[in-house]
Amino acid sequence: MTGIVLVRYLDLDRCGDGPAQRRLLDEDELARLGRIAVPRTAARFVAAHAALRLTVARYCGVPPGRVRWTRTPNGMPLVAAPDPEVRVSLSHTGRHAAVAVTRGRGIGIDLEGAGEPRRLPSSVRGMPVGPGGFPAAWTRMEACVKAVGGRLTEGLPLLTAAPGVVRAEHGALAGTTWYVRQLAAPPGCAAALAGVGPAPVAVDLGRFRPPVAWRSGQPGTSERKPETSSVKRSGSSTHGR
């Protein structure tokens, strides 16, 4: 899958947060979980982060226990083991989440509820946005920021960007180039994927397949079958959609 970005959508409320899922979280994730007061939010956090680790394990062909993270100062996960060349991105909104994995290229994925309100700085209120309206424009902007591990405020000028090759002309990200794809998304959501550099991004888009243990509540998540796409593979025919 070299050069292809694996993207998997999941319904967090169907993945559960039992012992099998919690065993996949590291100390940092468990500490963050302990600070979440709302039970449903906590359950979704467990499901999303367990799915991220398991997707990377399947991508690399190793048991989940061999996947180790480091994090940027902004909290973005980086793969420390088994292969530091693997790049990941995670986004979630409500009950939906998206995981993206590839090798050798910085990537960012963003998933937003289409009707989700945003508190915006006064400097961008009323700013004209790119194709698809505000939710789609926001996903493209945030995907770009996540691909380089930046801060959200640094990407706000990119709200005007359209899918395709995007270049930051001003601010902290000036000179950075991405290729941005608008993706088919779960109902009621908008999604975008950004890859650092101008080369088109090919996507293998599908649904996350939870292990049997997650559905049954039994221990064990050692399933290592390769991910299969239940949504058609997206290639050059839909770049920049």
UniProtKB/TrEMBL annotation:
One of its GO terms (biological process) is lysine biosynthetic process via aminoadipic acid. One of its GO terms (cellular component) is cytosol. Residues 228-241 have a biased composition (Polar residues). Keywords: Transferase. One of its GO terms (molecular function) is holo-[acyl-carrier-protein] synthase activity. It comes from the Bacteria. Residues 211-241 are annotated as: Disordered. This is 4'-phosphopantetheinyl transferase domain-containing protein. It comes from Streptomyces vietnamensis.
